Amino acid sequence: MQTSVEPHPVTTISSVGRHAGEVVVIRGWLYNKRESGKLLFPIFRDGTGLIQGVVAKNAVPPEVFDAVKSLTDESSVIVTGKVRADERAPGGYELDVQRVEVVQRVPEDDPFPITRKEHGVDFLMEHRHLWVRTPRQAAILRVRSEIEKAMHDFFDDRDFTRTDPPILTPAACEGTSTLFPVDYFEEQAFLTQSGQLYIEATALALGKVYSFGPTFRAEKSKTRRHLTEFWMVEPEVAYLELDGLMALAEEFVSHIVARVLERRRPELQIIGRDLSKLASVKPPFPRISYDDAVQLLQEGHAKGELEAKFEWGGDFGSPDETYISAQFDRPVIVHRYPAQVKAFYMEPDPKRPELALACDVLAPEGYGEIIGGSQRTASYELLVQRIQQHNLPIEAFRWYLDLRKYGSVPHSGFGMGIERAVAWICGLDHVRETIPFARMLHRLYP
RNA sequence: ACCUCAGUAGCUCAAUGGCAGAGCAUCCGGCUGUUAACCGGAGGGUUGUAGGUUCGAGUCCUACCUGAGGAGCCA
Questions:
Q1: In this structure, what CATH number is given to the domain that contains residue A18?
Q2: Nucleotide nearest A418, from its CA to each C1'
Q3: b or e along A434-443 (b: 16 or more beta carbons within 10 Å of the residue's beta carbon)?
Q4: Final residue before a domain boundary, out of A104, A120, A140
Q5: Is A385 helix (H, G, I), strand (E, B) or coil?
Q6: Do A81 and A136 belong together in one domain?
Q7: Using the CB atom, is residue A105 less than 7 Å from strand B?
Q8: Nearest nucleotide, C1' to the C-alpha of A109?
Q9: Distance, angstroms, CA A444 to C1' B45?
Q10: What gap in Å lies between CA A173 and CA A426, rounded to an integer?
Q11: A425 and A276 in one domain?
């Protein structure tokens, strides 16, 4: 918004340190206020941080004192004041307020609903559009943004091309998850649950590609790890085999964690993250086969640390993943799963055809699977056979089969749900705080 | 669909089957260094809904509604 010409420089709270001793203008909101007789302590926020203002009754005109005294929380204000270094201030600086222009005043009979006291989850989610203004939520969203930037830089530095797959799709990609149906000009369409099949096509065109976009799962999951709409980053690389894929995943995760530690330490501190847990996230990650993992789980059961006895052949449940990851101080890669529990497009292990060349990355501290990937079936005949075994409509996969007919090569890729990565890196107990507006089984508003 | 838990003031919660309460928030008053400030006062209630038991139900019983956590599925 363009306002009247200001005689003093407009700055942000995060950079007031460069203006110590100067009079500056800050455009923001009243975060909170304390008062002690003829002294007022308004705390302002502007999206970059918080700063406490000081207003002494005998130091300013009465209308300025009265304006601040009657200011309501979250009213928008343009504040003019002198920056003063002060050891008592959490940020190191205070603002001696000289002038306040109220842009919009929050009515006192309908105050800002979110206070500095505790609130319940449902209330906060119902007011998510206002909750994002609080320091902790803002810090989480900055970490998310940094993670997204780090991941784009990672792929860009390695000559990947970002190719965006469609969100509206004609049929199930894997035929397992429940999809959201959409009416597409009187034809049945679905919201994508993965861009993988499409980026296999662009990988065979461009060599190294990745996609980043929203994906949708209509499963009625009710856990701290699930959203119905979430964002997934998926690399796909021609001529890459399983070992190379695991190395890529390990470098990728390490790069992201290192970047957040390098650039978003203040945010992690606001969130209260234990940084020592992130410092150990460096290559190499332990790699264990599915067989080894099963043995670990059976030992865990024998020691009484796991309730159910795990039998070879099944997929890991949530308690199993937690137990496996708890054995290590960094993410662990589990590879070569039984083909029967994995998707139809995964390449069989040539040494043991009952296994799929798949790998999952399990995050530490019980955050579970953050990455799932595999080498893809390169053979036309085998892929046809697998599609039939899974009772999928072969006609819908005609274009996908073409990729095996015209210059098929070994290729691999993985997908990482970024909300789970953000939850892990920030140490949150639920993915709903990692995205501005979470979509869940019982949450479509706001 | 399954298991567990919850629903009382704007918010967070208390109340042995016997007068509906506190803290915070809001408003009024006090305090010249407050850090989720403090002190005094005021307003604020269809106890999720519908039945039932009882002299009497926020409390006990039944059904339903809404939400949370888990399991399953997955990223």
A1: 2.40.50.140
A2: B75
A3: bbeebebeeb
A4: A104
A5: helix
A6: no
A7: no
A8: B26
A9: 30
A10: 31
A11: yes
Structural domain for A70, as ranges: 10-104
The answer to whether the beta carbon of residue A64 comes closer than 7 angstroms to any atom of strand B is no
Q: Tokens 């095996």 belong to which residue?
A: A404
A269 contact to strand B (CB, 7 A limit): no
Which residues are CB-neighbours of A59 under 8 A, at least 6 positions away? A96
CATH number at residue A169: 3.30.930.10
List chain B nucleotides near protein: any atom < 7 Å from a Cβ.
1-2, 10-13, 23-27, 30-38, 66-75
Q: Is the CB of A129 under 7 A from strand B?
A: no
- Asked if strand B contacts A390 at the CB level, meaning under 7 A, the answer is no
Q: What are phi and psi of A415, to 5 degrees?
A: -125, 135
A224 touches strand B (CB under 7 A): yes
Q: Give per-10-residue mean pLDDT for chain A (446 aa).
A: 67 95 97 93 95 95 94 96 94 95 92 88 92 95 97 98 95 65 90 94 98 93 92 98 98 98 95 93 96 94 86 92 93 96 95 96 92 97 93 90 98 97 95 95 88
Whether residues A381 and A315 fall in one domain: yes
> Residue A200 falls within a domain, yes or no?
yes
pLDDT at A118: 82
pLDDT at A445: 87
- Work out if A250's Cβ lies within 7 angstroms of strand B: no
| CA A31/CA A29 separation, integer angstroms | 6
- How many angstroms is C1' of B17 away from CA of A66? 53
Residue A176 domain flag: yes
> Is A112 inside any structural domain?
no
Q: Which nucleotide is nearest to A217 (CA to C1')?
A: B74
In one-letter notation, the amino acid at residue A341 is V
Interface confidence (ipTM) of the complex: 0.90
Å from the A33 CA to the B55 C1': 53
- Burial degree of A303 (CB within 10 A; 0-12, 13-18, 19+): exposed
Same domain? For A206 and A97 the reply is no
- Closest nucleotide to residue A196 (Cα to C1')? B75
Q: pLDDT value at position A85?
A: 95
